[in-house]
Amino acid sequence: MPLPLLTRPLLCRPLQCRPLLACLTALLLLLGTALPAWADFVLPPLPYGAEALQPAIDATTMTIHHDRHHGAYVANLNAQVKDNPALARLSLDALQSQISRFPVAVRNNGGGHWNHSQFWAVMAPEGQGGAPSEELLAAINSGFGSLAEMQSQFNQAATARFGSGWAWLIRKSDGSLAITSTANQDNPLMDLPGIERGAPLLGLDVWEHAYYLQYQNRRPDYIKAWWSLLNWNEVNRRYSEAVAT
Ligand SMILES: [Fe+2]
Fold it and tell me: Were both Cys, which of 22, 132, 215, 238 would link to 137 (CB 3.0–4.6 Å)?
C-alpha cells in the first residue's frame, strides 16, 4: 500500500528523513490495526418508535433503556477490546458461548449487549406480534401442558428473580423447552457454572430500569402487561432456527 503523501520525503534528503519516516510509518500502522476494533460492537436501533409499546411500556422508559442503558453496555464492551484483543475477532453471538475466557467486565457488558438486542426484537406494538406457530405450540403443550401454564411458570421465574436479571424460555439441546432465570446480564448461552443452557426463545428484562418509572415496585404488573407486547413471530423464528441447528 503506498504511503500517504505526508510521509513522503519531499523537503529533505533520504538519510535525514529516515528516522522521521520510520516513526510516521509506525504510527500509521498502529492506528491502522487499532481503529477497526473500537467500532466492532454497535447499538442496534429500536425496531419501532419509543412510544410504540404504550401503554404497556412508556416512551421515556424505552428511550432511557435503549439509548442510555443499552448504549452504555455497547460502549463499555468496546472499551474492553484494547485489553482483550480476542474480542475483536468474535461476533456477539460467539462471545456468549465462550464468555468464561474473559473478565467480568466483558461478561456484564457483552451479556448486556446481547440480552437487550434480543429483548427489543422479541417485542412488538400491541396486536402486531402474531401468535405461536403450530410447531412451537406443540412443543409448549408437550413441555408444560398448555400455553397458560408455560406463561404462569415464566411469570413465577420473572417475579422471583432476586434483584436484577432475566427470565427465559429456552430450547435445550435435547429438544425440550424449559423456563429459567439468570442474574445480572448473564444468559442461557453462557458457558458458566449454574447457567441452565439452551437456545433462548424469549427473554424478559426484570431489571428495575426496565419498568420502575411506570410501575415503581410493581414488577408483577409490568410482567403481566409485557405479554401483550410479545412478538410471537420472532419467537417462532427463533424456535425454527433452534430446531434446525
Ligand atoms: Fe435492561
Answer: 132
All three cell numbers of 223, joined, read 410482567
Centre of ligand 1 to C-alpha 18, Å, is: 54
Distance, CA 124 to ligand 1 centroid (Å)?
16
d(CA 166, CA 64): 18
Torsion-angle region of 184 (φ positive above 0: left; ψ -120 to 50: alpha; else: beta): left
- Beta carbons of 239 and 171 less than 8 angstroms apart: yes
The residues spanned by each domain of the chain are 59-121, 134-244
Ligand 1 centre to CA of 222 (Å) is 13
CB 106 within 8 A of CB 77: yes
Question: What are 75-103's pLDDT values in tens digits?
Answer: 999 999 989 999 999 999 999 999 999 99
What residue has cell string 416512551? 59
Strand partners, 171: 177, 199
- At the second CATH level, the architecture of 134-244 is 3-Layer(bab) Sandwich (3.55)
70 CA distance to ligand 1 middle (Å): 7
CATH number of 59-121: 1.10.287.990
Answer with the residue of higher pLDDT: 245 or 152: 152
- Ligand 1 mean position to 85 CA, how many Å? 26
Distance from Cα 191 to the centre of ligand 1, integer Å: 21
